[in-house]
Amino acid sequence: MTFQKPTEELIKKAFPEITELSFIASGGFKGVYKAKLNGNLQALKLINVPEVPLADAESVRMRDELIRRVEREIEILKKCKSECIVKLGVLSPCGKDIEGKKFIAYSEEFLEGKNLWDLLRDATSPKPSEEELKTLLRALLEAIKEFWQYGIIHRDIKPCNIIKTGNAARPFVLLDLGIAFSRVDTPLTQGWTPATYRYFAPEMANPSFRDSLDYRADLYTSALTVYEYAAKVHPLAKDFEDPIVTVSRAVRVPPASLKSVRQDLSDDFCDLIDKLLNKIPALRPGNIAMLMKRIGG
Fold this sequence. Notes:
Blueprint: H1 8-14, E1 18-27, E2 30-37, E3 40-49, H2 57-79, E4 94-98, E5 101-109, E6 114-115, H3 116-120, H4 130-148, E7 152-153, E8 162-164, E9 172-174, E10 181-182, H5 216-231, H6 243-252, H7 267-276, H8 288-294
Antiparallel strand pairs: 1-2, 2-3, 3-5, 4-5, 6-8, 7-10, 8-9
């Protein structure tokens, strides 16, 4: 799944309201741009909808799933009010043909700042304080709580989907619900499991995960993200390894305690992160209000 990147000139031609445009990143069929639309700085999302032969049932199914995932992401963002979750922007979802290729386009607010992946990979960036880590965890817990009231599991909480804004009112904001799972809607995927395997809740490896998956999977990946941001090292995954090995380790190998790599952090905070990384969902602390209280939220 590779985004077929149009030239900036062609994008501006398709969207005359764009006066400034620069490419940020791409993943799968999606490209993200920093754009000024009618004077508003936005994150422009372009989703490449592949042309598929109608006789190829599997390709048609995958195309339709892609479209439905975009629709689901937008539906969720319309509902969510938390400041810890990215907001939709000024460009409503629309279809565009750009040089003979079909795209879905919409915008989100553009958030100034850096994502946590860039920060934890920056050797010059200091390790975060315990207060900052608690602020990050509080933001993620608030987002998870809001998703869950609609029966939604984000399923892709990870450092590159979190922006550190430098804004005290919204210090961390969670992005990208492209593979969100719904407990109330019809499942979109049959067979394979969409996931970022480096940030994979162990219960997702169960072939029947759809029957029991809940917000505790997001608690696990939040703790994984906090651990990696705190330590600047992932507790389980290794760079450039086979995803099967990563998943196997996520399922079978207990991570080292956060305390072993950040002795300066309090015993209570490290203990909380360790407990949230339990392989068994039922053994993770699951009362979000109590979790918030424990970290001073």
